[in-house]
């Protein structure tokens, strides 16, 4: 009968199919094995149960959980670790559910608040360690790829404001407003009147204090509120939602866009910014790594494909006028975050503990790798509320998003007709 060490090595060699894996493995009994003399990653399997779990589960889930729980020790750069993990996932592919029935999160106001509390109410000071100076926890926007994270996030805030064609005095609703970065930027630089809603008590307290400290309390209101409870109707000129709709749930997207339709004035604009599935048939699948994300990072999170977003927006009379994929921008953003978190490791561990530090480090590094490999995408979808047949004014071209000059809105010129 083969021992588990031999079984493990045979599986890996077969799965690699001749490829080189820059890995050194240290086993629980003192044995070690070099897959490549020029190894870049050292993995210490501290017990035989890890191999049993790899044979029956999915590699990325098992490796991620083992690292977080301390059953696996890993040394090396994160990009090398993730490349090795991908190689191991080929040898130990994810097992499909036997019943063929995929888990779907049951979204409710109570469950959504609980999920948001888990991820976002860790500690404002913890997030401050590695986020930018504006505390923006979403994909940055790079013009050269060489910008620091502060510059990239300010470019993103401005890109959103320009894309929404914000004008002084307009009423802007920010759904899932985070720590208030976008509303603060829009109020200061574009003169809007803003409302932001969040379910995170930590974010609410921070954003509210920030708005008051920066003298914007008469122009910006922050609410601790579920988006479904926003009472306004036909009130806002513009709506932004950045990094929030991943928490809504695919089945709830029609309701989510119905709320946006309800709060927007006729002719109002909405910009939805969120992570999307890279392949149409992937959005409901069970993938290696998804159990880890569900358990440790984003409870009840669901990622839709772009087709579903566009369809459900159209179902609520939200006419899509612009779509932009920022996939490489999010990979670059996550690399900045991981580097900054590592640089503040001792402070982070003191704040939130070794386990949570490991969760955030490996999840962000893994997401960066996923965006580079096109396993995930990030789309900004811009739409206008158009319920009537008359053409709603909008710019003739996209140049308005990138230049200071204001361009005339598209209005029909019927001439002598």
Structure overview:
The protein is of the alpha/beta class and 417 residues long. The protein has two domains: 4-91, Nonspecific Lipid-transfer Protein, Chain A; 109-387, Vaccinia Virus protein VP39 (Rossmann fold, 3-Layer(aba) Sandwich). The chain has 15 helices and eleven strands. The strands form two sheets. Strands 7-6-5-8-9-11-10 form a seven-stranded mixed beta sheet, with helices on both faces. It has a four-stranded mixed beta sheet with strand order 2-1-3-4. Helix 1 packs across helix 4.
Mean pLDDT: 88
- SS-based class: alpha/beta
Give the proportion of residues in helices.
40-55%
- CATH classification, class level of the largest domain: Alpha Beta
Tally of distinct domains: 2
- List the helices and strands in order: HEEEHHEHHHHEHEHEEHEHHEHHHE
In short:
The protein is built from 15 helices and eleven strands. The protein is an alpha/beta fold.
Topology:
Elements: H1 4-16, E1 23-26, E2 32-34, E3 41-45, H2 49-56, H3 59-69, E4 72-75, H4 78-91, H5 109-120, H6 124-130, H7 149-163, E5 171-175, H8 181-190, E6 193-198, H9 201-213, E7 220-224, E8 236-242, H10 253-263, E9 264-277, H11 290-297, H12 306-314, E10 318-325, H13 327-343, H14 345-352, H15 354-372, E11 376-385
Parallel strand pairs: 1-3, 5-6, 5-8, 6-7, 8-9
Antiparallel strand pairs: 1-2, 3-4, 9-11, 10-11
Give the key terms.
alpha/beta; 417 residues; 7-stranded mixed beta sheet; 4-stranded mixed beta sheet; Nonspecific Lipid-transfer Protein, Chain A; 17% strand; Rossmann fold; 15 helices
